[in-house]
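haha ok so turns out i had the wrong file open the whole time. this is the CORRECT one, sorry everyone. sequence first:
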Amino acid sequence: MPRRIRARAGCVPRSASSSTKYPRLLAFGALTARNGAAHSDPCHHTAQLVPYRGIAKGDPMTRPAPAPVHPDEPFPSSPPPTATSALAVQIAALRYDAIGEDARTVAAQCVLDGIGVAIAATAEPAVRILRKTVLSEVADGPATLLGTDLRTTTRDAALVNGTATHALDYDDVSGPMSGHPTVPVLPAVLALGEELATDGKALVTAMVAGIECEVRVGAALGNAHYLRGFHTTATAGTLGAAAAAANMLGLSAEQTCTALGIAATQAAGLKSMFGTMCKPLHAGKAAASGILAAKLAAAGFTAAEDAIAGERGLLATQSDGADLDALTVPFGRPWHVADVLFKFHAACYLTHASIEAALALRAQGLEPAEIESVEVLVTPAHLGVCAIPSPRTGLEGKFSLRFATALALATGRADESRFTDASVADPALVALRDRVRVVTVDDVGRYSGQVTVRSRDGRTWQARDDVGSPRWTRSPAEQLHALEAKFDALVTPMLGEARTAQLLAVLGDLDSLSSVAELTALTAPAPRSHP
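then structure:
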């Protein structure tokens, strides 16, 4: 049974003293697990107030040697008394060498996949409107708008890039989180990484910190949160972005605890926005809010000590029967990032099993002209997510089990090029879509789908699929070829073959990346040579 949530009093800095270890950050007294100091609660350290002026590009911070995090050993050995501070300790202490190899590999794949879908969405209406609005206010700054040579502030870049990364709904998924893990975190660490001149290893470390945090928060919120109408990518994702930014900034455990509180009070996003431009905006807002939370915490802002699990906190107000154990499980037990599910069809992930089943029927020889009727069998939860019966736009088509299944049966493909306003209005596809009936049952897996077709000659065709597990078994490298093919298909039309190949090469060796700016610069089209 999930543990009962208990409340604790708020946490604020109490006194000031001098220090030279963190000249640009608000450094709280003992750094708990980061410097090995024994202290029961990182949110109750004495504060030391130092003006926060940001960090100059090219000026790396001095970070004290961390206590190691080992998957085989609980961390920390004496957990702080609140769930939020316990999570903060792990986020603050996480370093690259402590992350499991599979987790590091998949985190790098998340960067690859996320940048690909963001570049492909550069011309999407939601992205164009948001970009124009942002640049009308600030048209220069330390951070790149992906897919362009334009720059703006760190937070505005995270806002626009986060929206772009989610605009096509082609980004990855986490089952325990009930959301999309990369879209709130990657835009935050790319923008902040440019500001700080962060290297590739620090980028991957921050990605893992953010994803591990948001998946735990999403799992603790549970399915009740999603069923209430909250978009977990937006809510838990705001905390994930804050965790990633805090790790990248080198915040102490107590500062990270505060950042999580600031993020929690900003967390928002409604499922009623699915099928509109506001759904991808959720991801952009989460990324930008996470950066704000971390920077405010660094500057001395205060927040409730147990904002996640305390009385009237995130879990208490936005869920029923929250699972505190899911929130406090040590990093590495498991590494949730290793189980991220990548999309290879450009639609809501809950349509993918049915798409795969439909493709399997085509492979068996089923011809679209032979189809009399189609039945799609899924869990009832699908009805509140991807059951738009008669989509009017390509975006709505991505959230229509009827259309996505018909599309796969008719064309044998469900990539980005197929989800257009023209395709959802195509008379042949509409006629087939109208022969698709969605049926729900309780005894099927969350990511399962069964498609049964009755052909005009009276035969019955049936296939079932489950997309709830990663595509690899022994090593995440097994899915790299498919991810690179997806990236190439998305990015080459935007940047050209040479630039895409150059970007892929850098993304394939993030360990050697000396500065995030080198990576983001390659996301813009190559300058044209003039004779």
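The chain has 19 helices and eight strands.
again sry for the mixup
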